[in-house]
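Protein 1 of 2
SEQ + STRUCT:
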Amino acid sequence: MKVKEVMHKGVDWVSPDTPITEIAKLMQGHDVGCIPIGQDDRLIGMVTDRDLVCKGLASKNFNPARTTARDVMTEGIHCCREDDDLAKAVHHMETLKIRRLPVINKSKRMVGMISLGDVGHFAGADLMSQCMKSVSAHH
């Protein structure tokens, strides 16, 4: 099975200057736990719901009116390709201990996102069990 068969399509990204209040509303509206961050037509990071809490809300001088994606995002981004085998993408998620992975096409354009939920709906029980154990392990 290929990644493009199980991924969520049509995922958008926001700029690093986007206020975190807007990011939280996007997460709520789309029922997702992360928003990719892009600049100059390339992905540069990710803001997760955990980033909003741990790097935003829990930080000392937190000001929701002034905090942007750049302030809380996890820099760097790991992707998989839409034509990758699902098992390869799952192995990548296991190795990195991440729950979500952006999907790019041959032109390096983001075309979707694959999550543990997607894997759970389509992968076999063995692959899903192995992925859950690895991703959920304490860092």
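Protein 2 of 2
SEQ + STRUCT:
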Amino acid sequence: MSEGTAVAGPDGAPRCPWALSTEDYVAYHDEEWGRPVHGDDALYERLCLEAFQSGLSWITILRRREGFRAAFAGFRIADVAAFTDADKERLLADPGIIRNRAKIEATVANARVLAQWSPGDLDALIWSHAPDPATRQVPKTLADVPAVTPESTALSKALKKQGIRFVGPTTAYALMQACGLVDDHLETCVARGTPL
């Protein structure tokens, strides 16, 4: 077996190796990662969670996701945009999330920017950066999966130009992977090309 190729999971089906370390990862890999996500609030949530993940393991975020949803009003853009300084202090004391002041500030600031946009604008901007699947090689091993692409760099620049914070090219690419703009499941992975 080549290094980084799909590995048999608990049910014997081949999966991306990163998905097999915990049951939480198996479920996330099989049911969410790489599936198309639409809707401004849903994409805002993914954008925020990817920003909080920066410098941490994704499992750290995944296991706190319900805590994040409770703390950030379900990631409804209009509600988070109305957060006050008192809300920010509450968040800094919330053990159910990652208590990083800069990331909390960015999450609220980003909501305030997005609250000024028309419905569907965030969805349209993000999805306008989805590459043509026909132009992408199907990854056979983890080494074939990039961390940054020209599209993620362009998406990062487009979001930053609009005032969105904590979205560098690597975070933008992780967002693209998580939200199905790209399908980076390995060639022999059971979840590759799985429809919604």
